[in-house]
Specification:
4-stranded antiparallel beta sheet, binds 2-oxoglutaric acid, Jelly Rolls, gibberellin 2beta-dioxygenase, binds fe (ii) ion, metal ion binding, single chain, IPNS-like_FE2OG_OXY, about 25% strand, iron, binds ligand L4NPZUNZ
Length: about 350
Amino acid sequence: SAAPASSSAAAPACRDMAPAGIPTIDMSAPAGRAELSRQMVEAFAERGFFKAVNHGVPPRVSARLDAASAAFFARPAEEKQQAGPPDPLGYGSRSIGSHGDVGELEYLILHTDPDVVARKARAIDRDDPSRFSEAVNEYVQAVRHLACQILDLLGEGLGLRDPASISRLVTTTDSDSLVRINNYPPSATGDGGVKAASAVGFGEHSDPQILSVLRANDVDGLQVLLPDGRGEDAWVQVPADPAAFFINVGDLLQALTNGKLVSIRHRVMASTSKPRLSAIYFAAPALHESISALPETVTADAPRRYRPFTWAEYKKTMYTLRLSHNRLDLFKVVGEGGGDSEQVRVVQM
Ligand SMILES: C=C1C[C@]23C[C@@]1(O)CC[C@H]2[C@@]12CC[C@H](O)[C@@](C)(C(=O)O1)[C@H]2[C@@H]3C(=O)O
Ligand SMILES: O=C(O)CCC(=O)C(=O)O
Ligand SMILES: [Fe+2]
């Protein structure tokens, strides 16, 4: 089916933003583990994201990735193209996906398997490939650990019989997790000013995987779409904090929790005079993994919302669609009684 146009144009401008509603969670659990997992479930159910502080990722690990990324982006354009095109992994500039989405950025998308990183690093840092691959591998290890801690806490907060069942999807050796490094150039107009606040760095979308762990430098730009309390959604600016991680629910976690946790729509607006550098770890399962609602999340009051699907199937669908598409809707079960009924109809693409 045809992808709908981005709804960004229709969404309210930043000046109409809802009062800041950025849940912040102290990962050192000052009030105990049970309270920490309760806070996480609440933040993910109501907002789909939170800011993690005291997260345990050493600042030098992030700084090392920043330095390696900045060194790559500073190379001449012809040299960077050697690490592209994004097929869908690799170096890309402005074009996002293969359906006409564009943004004011350049990026690297890498699979997190260390062997794959090592191979790609030969085109990224030709003088010393291991300088780049080691920085990425060390970073990935640290953020995967953080992601799994969060997923275990969620498992506990959701009252799962097997609380580690979600994090196991990510720790498997054939996990399809990715890391994406984005560089948004300063949006100077040439006359000393900056572009209008409407310049899109990375258009509106939800992340397809299980969980996204985002860190950026001190440059603002990330916005999340949140209910404004008056029955509308509004874009809320997420103030930059290089010492924190911003964690968001992906489409698969929404499906696994039968819609209890919500995959948040977000975007990046490019209107600053400094480059924004960000790195996002997308925690994903293995390609063959079947995704269906965890039994504890399916009740008489909350019947099954999505039909089971594999990550490979979901990924194939997502790559045929525009960035802004509500792709999880295509897997919705329709009909009375939810998905446990033999009579269910499934929305076809
Ligand atoms: C337009 C697209 C880019 C994207 C693949 C897609 O067809 C739809 C999902 C997009 C997205 C958003 C989150 C991540 O940045 C990303 C790497 C992902 O897994 O899904 C991108 C994809 C991409 O840039 O290849
Ligand atoms: O670069 C950012 O800050 C966010 C980008 C993003 O949402 C993505 O790459 O999926
Ligand atoms: Fe995203």
